[in-house]
Amino acid sequence: MGAKTCRVVLCVAAFISAPIATEAQATIEQPGSRQPVALTRPRIPPLQEGQMTDVHRQLVAKFSRGGHADNGLKTLLHVPEIVDGLMPYTIYLSEESGLSPRHRELLVLRTAWLCGNQAVWSSHAARARKLGMTASELRRIAEGPDASGWDAVEAILLRLADQLYRNSSVTDATWQALAAYYDAFRLMDAVETVNHFLMISMLYHSFGVQPDDGATDRLPTDVPYRVVVPDREPPRAIARIAPGPGNGIAVGRTFAQHPKLTERWSPRQSFVNRVSKLSPRYREMLILRIGWNCRSEYEWAQHVGRVGRARDHGLDPVRIAEGPAAAGWDPLERTLLRAVDELYRDTTISDGAWSALADRLDTGLLMSAVFTASTYRAISMSLNTYGVQLEPGDERFPQMPAR
Hints:
The protein is 55% helix and 0% strand.
C-alpha cells in the first residue's frame, strides 16, 4: 500500500489483559434499554430571521442547502462557533464520504431510530425517499438488521450502528464482516457516520430541536424498540487502524490515515479544546466522565494526562470515576456529571438537570457543555472501535473499590 493509504489490521487476537476497573462499580446502565423520547417543544428556540446578524447569515449561506436553514442549524446559530465546528463534518458525512448515498442514509436513519430523534429522522427520511427508498424500507430500518430484505452489507451496517450505540465499540466479527466489502477509508466513514449523528442526536434532543415545518416523516410508532447486540468485547491489544508515522499521539496519527475525513473532523475537536469558553475544569470533567462511561481508556488517559492535565485543574480522577454521587462536588459540578450520565444512557438531559444547569450557565456555556460531552462520546466510540493503543506511560483507569 502507498504512503497515503490507510492501513487496517484485521485480526482477532490479543485483547488487553491488564486489569481494569469493573463495570459494576461506577459506571451506569448502557444505552438501549428503552427508546429515548424527543421533546415536543424547544428548550432553545431556533434563531429567527429578524434576530440574525451578518455573521449568522454568512453561516447559513455557507452551510445550508439552497440558503435555507433548518431548525437544527437555526438552533446552533446561538453559538456561531459551534456551527463552524460541527457543520464541515456533518456535510462531509452526509454528502461527500466514500459511502454510497443509500448506505449513508441507512446508517443515519438507524442511528436516529436508536436515539429516538424525530428531527434527524424526518430530515434524512426525506433524503432517503429522494434516493428511491420506500416507506417499507424506512420501516425496516426501525425493525433492524434482522428484518428480512436487507442484503449482506446493509445488514452489517445496521449491526454496526446498533453495537456502537449500545457498546461504544464494535465486535471483531462485525468489523471483519464489513471489511470484506469496504476498504479502510470506508470503514472509518461508516463508523464516523454513526458516531457523529449520535452526537447530533444528543445535541438536538437536549436543545429540543423540532422537525421542520412541512416535514411529514416521523419515527415509526408500531415497531418495538429493541437493541440486541453481543456483549461488549474487552479492549484490543492491536489497533485495527494502524496509526501513521510521526511524533504525535496515536489518535491524531490514526485519523491522519484518512486525510479528507480528518480535515473535516478537526474543527469539531478544535471547538471543544480551543474555542469554547467553557472553563478547563468543567471541560475536563465532562470529557473524563463520558470517556469513563464509554470505557474509552485511551480518552481517559489523555485527559488525565498530557492533553487535559486533569489534576492541574483540581480534578481527582477517582472522583470522576465515582461520578455525581462522590463527595466533594459543588451543586453545579454534580449536575454536570449527572447530565453526562443522562446523555450517555438516554441521549438527552432530563428536565431537572437541564433546569439546574440553565440556572447557572448562560445559553452559550450550556450549549458548549452539551457539545463537549457529545463530541467526546463520539471520539470515545471511535477510539474503541479503531483500537487506538495507549501511549507509553499512560495512566490507566483507576481500580475502584468493590461495593
